């Protein structure tokens, strides 16, 4: 793969990390309505951001997650007209390295994860959200606690 600091490539890596954390084996197509389907049937939308980028920076990037709502795709009818929330749970992934020489995208210790039920994300009422707002809604979890946090958020979503 190209530079793992690239926004699109980092997004794919974040999805893969979430898949690994929950034990998912089915790789969903890029155009699917959500990113990860857990073995228990929880639909997960994965969003990622980072302080470091693949381009030259004078300062660290502001952590923002966009595309919270998306249009679904149907091969027979194309994109739906309206953007909707299409998952049960959102996982916001932050690659935390702040120096290029320390950056190791495969070190799960350099990632923070924030998990929210879709109803909470919908209640924010915006198409993008900053890290500070996500942190007000939930707590950071590490990679090894991610599967349990997703299950708990799904339970809150369905109750």
* Rg value: 15 Å
* Terminal CA distance: 41 Å
Mean pLDDT: 89
Strand order across the largest sheet: 1-2-6-7-9
Structural class: alpha+beta
Major pleated sheet: 5 strands, mixed
How many helices? 4
Short description:
The chain has helices at residues 7-22, 118-124, 131-137, 146-157, and strands at 36-37, 43-50, 64-66, 73-74, 78-79, 89-95, 111-117, 128-130, 140-141.
Could you name the key traits of this structure?
single chain; 159 residues; alpha+beta; two-stranded antiparallel ribbon; 4 helices; 9 strands; 23% strand
Q: What does it look like?
A:
- With 159 residues, the protein is of the alpha+beta class.
- The chain has one domain (7-157).
- It is 26% helix and 23% strand.
- It has four helices and nine strands.
- The protein has helices at 7-22, 118-124, 131-137, 146-157, and strands spanning 36-37, 43-50, 64-66, 73-74, 78-79, 89-95, 111-117, 128-130, 140-141.
- Strands 1-2-6-7-9 form a five-stranded mixed beta sheet. The protein has a two-stranded antiparallel ribbon with strand order 3-8.
- The N and C termini lie far apart (41 Å).
Topology readout:
Layout: H1 7-22, E1 36-37, E2 43-50, E3 64-66, E4 73-74, E5 78-79, E6 89-95, E7 111-117, H2 118-124, E8 128-130, H3 131-137, E9 140-141, H4 146-157
Parallel strand pairs: 2-6
Antiparallel strand pairs: 1-2, 3-8, 4-5, 6-7, 7-9
